[in-house]
Amino acid sequence: MANLALVYEAQGKHVIRELPIPEPLPGFLQVRVEAAAVNPADQKIFDSPRFGLVNHWPTVIGWDAAGEVTKVAAGNSNCKFKVGDRISFACIPSVSVDGGVSYTSRGAFQQYALADEKYAFKIPDGIDYASASTWMAAGISAASAMYTHLRVKEPWLGGKDAYKGQKIVILGGSSSIGSYAIQMAVMAGLEVITTASATHLEYLKSLGAHVAIDRSAPDVAAQILAATGGPIRHAIDPVSFEATQSLAVEILQEGGVLNLMLPLEPSVRPALEAKKIELRWTYGVEGMYANPELHVAAEEYFKEGLWRFNRPTVLGGLEAWETAFDMHRKGTVASWLTRNEQKDVVLHWLLKLA
């Protein structure tokens, strides 16, 4: 068997070539990748050394994947997965599992990768690999916003419907993080007011949003305030561009709480400080929600239809990476670092390439 990979050889340099198929270690699964989601972070890492999430080359990037378990480590009798299981799993590029010999086995953009059992779950019957690959980075980021930074109690710990009567604003609701944050907020009992492009408003209502507002409306702030009954206490801004940050500050009450996914824009700081808004964000690894129980619960919620996977746009195989990255650069797809509110981009591996 071959393992065709999109190898990150150096800053700004990708090469498609074969790598050894990684062998599973205790706690890890060997997985044949069937679909891998392309996040804006992948494009940012490739384009800019200041992004700082890759420190070793060659490596393989890509944070989210779904595929079939092909091997379990010998002697791993406590493993809850078996060969043939269909799983969604998190990837962590530029991490070594063999003491620094290699840094390629944990990235998503290859035909075989290692999955950490703690950050994986079985895909429900009837769900395709492409949809299932949209969960990990966006789901963890949404959970970070809700459960870590806004301190909403997890539903599996008694937080289900615990916040009835309270409201939250989620800007950019049809972004990858926004869509999952809406579903988490609804499960908590929160009344969600969200924004998106006009074509996605009905979809967001189907996820449980109480009010969905056209983000391009000239009176978008007034519409939000009308829906919330006045300045709001909590807001999440998965988009985190200057315009959305300014909007969030405008609709928040004095002393409110704002969760961002990118650092605060300098131009927004004076208004934020004038209203004494407490700033919280999930940018970078620090502050991310690392509780494996999230994925245990998510497996059940997706199976029961309480949560729904994001809607993917499927491109080609490994050779489609340039198209995917360019779509993120131009803002024609959405995820946790872009402002446009379309669908996730998923690179769907065509295994016949090997």
From TrEMBL:
Q: SMART domains, from UniProt?
A: PKS_ER
The segment(s) forming the Enoyl reductase (ER) domain are 12-334
Membrane-crossing ranges are none
**One Gene Ontology MF term:** oxidoreductase activity, acting on NAD(P)H
Supply the name of the protein.
GroES-like protein
